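Standup, Tuesday
Yesterday: got the pipeline producing structure tokens again.
Today: sanity-check two examples.
Blockers: none.

Example 1:
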Amino acid sequence: MSERELDAAPPSIPTGNAFGPIQGDNVIAGQNISGGTVNNNFVKNNFYGEQERGLKHLKNLYTTDPRHDKTRIEQTKGGLLADSYRWVLDNTDFRRWRNNEESRLLWIKGDPGKGKTMLLCGIIDELKAVSDPALLLFFFCQATDVSTNNATAVLRGLIYLVDQQPSLLSYVQKKYDATGNPLFRGVNTWVALSEVFIDILEDPTLPPTRLIIDALDECIEGLDLLLGLIVQMSSIHLNVKWIVSSRNWPIIEKKLNATTQKVMLSLELNEESVSTAVTAYIRFKVDWLAAQNGYDIDTRDAIERYLSVNAYGTFLWAALVCHELADISGWEAEEFLRTFPPGLDALYRRMMDQIHKSRHAKLVQRILATVAVVYRPISLEELPILLDIPYRASGNDQAMAEIIGLCGSFLTLREHTISFIHQSAKDFLLKQARNEIFPSGLENTHHTVFS
């Protein structure tokens, strides 16, 4: 948020005695010691001043704006298709969470590539559309980026979105006045921010609030702390409800089982609904491919059938295959399609085999190894600094983009930023292709990149 935006933010002034006592010189809101009336401008100016300071301190909290993360995620995945998530709105477990006062925590769990993130993006949009709730806070964990892969970052992001209710920012201001910058940068940051967060949720003026955290399994630092806070706060606040998502991790299930207010929605147990949603997604993508590449009706239908049969309810598999088909002419598309095996790991293995066969195999291996060990997504400009790139390609955006394209569908490039297409792609490289991309060992690659 820019300085200009902070200064222009219009805080709302509460009515009645929402301020509570104003400390100093025996003055209470609206009264002085002799019973006269304090100039109303004093109250207003005091309130505006607190709001302005609270808004400005949000800059110190900032590591990422979850609203921008949501937009980027949707754009990277080709847009949010309503037919791919609306099934959840009629799901029994979701409706129980939404309508039952005692059901305050919904855990959506599923295997990699099942569409959990886009499902939550759709839920966020639906809650916004009906103004339910008054305050909506959300965060997307991503293991490949230090600004989104730890518990403290989650709290930073959630509190950052409290700018929707400026009156609640007084808790940020109060803590900052007591501790200064260490509130935002220091070994006790989690403790300080969790206290601010709890104070916000316990504010008696807090409107109905929904908190959504995606991909708990990608919170690689402080997950236990975050889960403990979620369980604690979802158990005691009637006005606050939570949705969290993750892979099927027993450690997460064990922690969340500590609350009796939990509702679990398993994507595997809702296989029919998920498969129907994947089919709708495939139909949408194939229609686009047919228009783009001039498929005749038989080719179009054959491609849709193959994708539908082999996706096994996995959005990511269908998306990766459609991405590979984007530059394939209609006359060869069907034959080319049949080289893609079902299953994510099998698909990743095929991609690695194709890389090994290419004349750029060593360059691609070094790029994948570098992107796998860095702590955040890197830019096109940073890549040549971290490893040797062909001289005429370095500094040439078009050439660099072509080089990233040689990495199959493991990597994606958006606005000059290189990142993994999905956490499961990085997992595959680190576990099943480790010896291939780190021939001299992961530790040696890490040392080479950071030395």
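Example 2:
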Amino acid sequence: MDKVKQFSIFHFNDVYEIEASTVEPVGGAARFVTVCKQFKKEKGDQGLVLFSGDLFSPSTLSVLYKGEQMIEPINACSVDVACVGNHEFDFNLETIQNRFKRCNFPWLCSNIFNIRTSGILADNHAYYIEERAGVRIGIMGLAESDWLNTITEIDMSIVRYEDFVKCAKQLIEVLKKEHGCEMIIALTHMRVPNDKLLAQEVPEIDLILGGHDHIVIDELVNQSLFIKSGTDFKDYSILDIEVGDFSSVPQAQREQLMKEKVYIIKNKYKINLKFHNVTKDIEEDEQIKKHVDFYIAKSRDEMQKVIGYSFEPLDTRFSVLRTEETNFGNFYADVIRKEVQADVTIVNSGTIRSDCIFPEGEVNYALLNKALPFPDIIVVQELTGAHILQALENGVSKWPNFDGRFPLISGIRFTFDGRKPPGERVLKDEVYIGDNLIDLNKKYSAATKQFVSLGKDGYDMFQGRPYILAFENGLPHLQIMISFFKSLETKESLKSNSNLASKFSEIQKVAFNMDDEEELPPVMQPQVIRRRSSIISQNTPSLNNIKVMRSLKRKQSRIEKVDNSGLVSGIKVHDDQAYIVIAPKCDGRIRIIK
């Protein structure tokens, strides 16, 4: 009787933050390295570690260090093979090639080519071959065309893309006939529908191990198993694989096994799949903990400075943000629109990257930088109502998929019917700009990112439209958000600066609680807000019934909740520094018919 061939695969995808979170599963690179090392220790030569892309960006630290902080942790994970993700290309070609070369494993990019060099983009590999338990395994790495439109740091005129189905079929011939591979694995960085399409069109693939969607999923499609293993050093999967002849297993037993996440693939492989979380009870790897602590300390002082407060938890979850409105998405879009004095804001939801709920309380640089790690520039363009309608149709065209084109909007209210085909979903008689029904012929000013203005993520209706605020005069959106929170003077400078009074006459009189707080002089009444950007209009929105409070005896800061109808819900004064308080809501600006 032949000895049973067995080996195991450790799979993960889409990792961004090396620091552990405070909510389970806490994740973090140090604990993740521990579980990787444990896997390698237990499985020995029969363990295979595979990664499905998005490593170097985006994150709070990537803005500062361009992915440098990820190299030591990923090498400590003893990855055998990886495929590239779209965010590998958030940096220029020279930078990312340097990052790839410093990894102790091959990166695959099977279907994206550099026209100038006639090779794979960024000097990566088309395929790689591993052997476990005597089984020769051919591995390819595939990307979808959609995310090429998100690349802005590389000259796309040098890039040639090949359809992933066509490329996979060609590589099957090479891997099976030329290299004698028995098992075929596709590492992918694509959306779920494209993973399923790949399984349908290329049945020779045994395993599709995907990334890009930050979810845990497993499904048998056309006798191919495809999975995604979560995100952000918090999740991973282990596949224990037995090689043999399973043709005699009856269908009823197969169905029962599938309920237990045991899959029989093409009667050759029996795969026991288990998903795991990285929780706080896992011991941190000492060396990687030192590495994480070094980078966090390096950036902590500046990033942890409090610049504001929120009365509400701020929802930036990937799965929610890309399928419906969230309070943080609304707040972001509102700040952008009001700061540049545009009629509307239309920005792709893929802009916000933090994929979490920030608790109510302090707002600091790190929070904003985690939510907005890309150095995107805000521009303002002239669009007709017809263009705006097209933009909204594009924004909801992929719903309910977790697609980054789903819109963040301000100054707009609309309804779409998710049951209708893409391009016909937005109800034209339920699209409002401000309080008025949209006029398809009228010209509106639209704030957006340079990324969208270049026609990325399907927003080609922006491309070529006249600029009101062009790129060279625009501001990074992170800077705009920070400036919003830092738009208050210190209390002492407000008292002494009477020149501000004439600048912001629309701001209403500040209200005070005289029982416990210090009364401020009349000069404070009209000039609470100071704009720091020269491009920002001085026609600022009024702040209704704002209370400025400070306890003189206890030197203890206090916040009092006031009107929630505007961007600012209150003022907190502490140690002579005034802070804006927000309480953003979901207000029904996007209505979905399901």
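Quick observation on example 2: The longest strand covers residues 135-143. The mean pLDDT is 86.
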